[in-house]
Amino acid sequence: MNYQLKEVNLIYDTDKESGAAALKDVNLSLNTKGLVGILGPSGSGKSSLLYTMAGLKYPTSGQVFYGNMDFSTMAISELASLRRKEFGFIFQQHFLINYMTVLENALVPLNLNTRRVRRKAMILLERLGVEKCANKYPHQLSGGQRQRVAIVRALMNDPKVIFGDEPTAALDHESAGEVMELLLEYTKNALVVIVTHDESILGKADTMIHIRDGLIVRVSQPGQEAAK
Amino acid sequence: MRPLSICIFFRHNKKKLISNVIIIVVAICFVYIMECFVASIVQSIYPLDANRFEYASVIISTEAVPEISQEMIDSTLSSENIERTMPISIQKINFSVPGSSTHPAVLGIDYSDLSYLSTKYKIELYDGRMPEEGTKEIAVDWNAALNNNLQIGSQVGSDIDKTQPLNGTYTVVGILKSDSHISIVGAPGPNDSTLANDEKGYFIFPNEGCFEAVEDEVTAFTRQGLYVWTLTLYNKAFAKNSQTFKILDTMVILVIVVMVICLVCSKYAQYFSRKSEIGVLNALGYTRREITARIFREEIITNLIGFIVGLTLAILLCKIILAAYFDSIGGTGVYLYGKAAAMSLPAPLLTTIFTLIPLYRLIGRFDAISIVEDN
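^ inputs. structure came back:
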């Protein structure tokens, strides 16, 4: 599966005269695997691009293709099912469910509680250093710990595409490095798309998308450029 | 258990579950107990008069017609429909329950008619003896005795209690048990000259299969200026006087409506506070239908638990308090009542329906990304 965006425009408040254009004539083609970074100043449309690619926002015009699937022809429920089966999402805020334990939060995407699934969750929690918090509740954790749990949750269904909206914003430098190391492992078999202000975490990115005022100003492949 | 199962939700939200259940329980208890209270009043009062009209109609003399002659009866009624006519004196005794009162009959009869009357109305002597003819003795109906706190040897009458319609003073010598709730006095008999106009009359007993025909014939006596009581006429009068109970029914419906509105608003607010949870589930790939189904299960189970617990508690409370009190004063306490259970059902049912409909629309408005951006 690869990603294609064709002439995608996303305009907020389309019923008003001065609707705000979050994305303008975006054309993009991405491989199925690798790390993609989306960079740009605040309000440039980074998150809007991410949400549009994830099927969380319908473009005002244009088409988004994930393999052969055209998002504009899919129903909301079909998009939701696609997200559940193939995508993982890491929000800027953790959005853990307050009344569930850490382990239960991690199991939410699969909604299973088998031994195999619990073991998988524990391995990921251990990988991110929060395995001892498995039976604690979100309000008992620090912000960084909650974000790490949210990352585990995003990885539980072995997604083919992982979307991260500032996934390391709440983490210290060392923890951010650990998280990126884990995500890089997934790039062997999946596409990881990260929105960030912190260019340092995208040192090993395969593709960098620079966006400003809703327009993609530059798409670079740092790895290939460095090789040249 | 799956993380999104309702068991996990209830396990982690016990206080919420308990508070929601308690509200439903209170609503159901209130409705059920009110309905049983009304039913207890009706079941206590109605049979005291109605049951004796199931076997005989009654004609009573008036000021206009102070004496009822046998000729008058023979000329009005068809002999082939009548099994027996029985002259009686009629007095009354108090009987009251919370919310209502009545005056069951106290009869004076010719003792030659006693055997027939006892057989017809299945009157049993529960305790003591029958009053001697011509004496100021009374065998009181068991229910009336309980209600007036009478035992063998007690005295009753207007001389002792001015509110008692029973003239004079009577000594209780017997307790009677029958469905007709008739009490019998030794005096005055039906031919006593001291009887007032509305204190003498006749029982008209129909032949087998002639009940309705005799009712129609007896009703004709009203044109001759007599008081007439048949089962049909009594039921009409009782229904007319039971308008108060209809008001109570209306009150119960209003209470249900108010409770449903309060419950639905409370539930709506609760789910609104869970919008980030709903938004995240949607972002993670759960469809609106799946999220609604989960909430539907939460609501159904909560309301079902509330209904079962509420109904059980209500029945127990009715049995322990209501029925016990009514039975102790000679009434009939109702604690198992289908109509009450049916009236209790709308509260949880309507709460479920009117919670789910706006919630379904609310969930549709919970755009996952709006929630992310709002936060």
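The first strand of chain A starts at residue 3 and ends at 12. Helices of chain A lie at 46-53, 76-86, 102-107, 115-127, 143-155, 173-186, 222-227.
thumbs up if we can close this ticket
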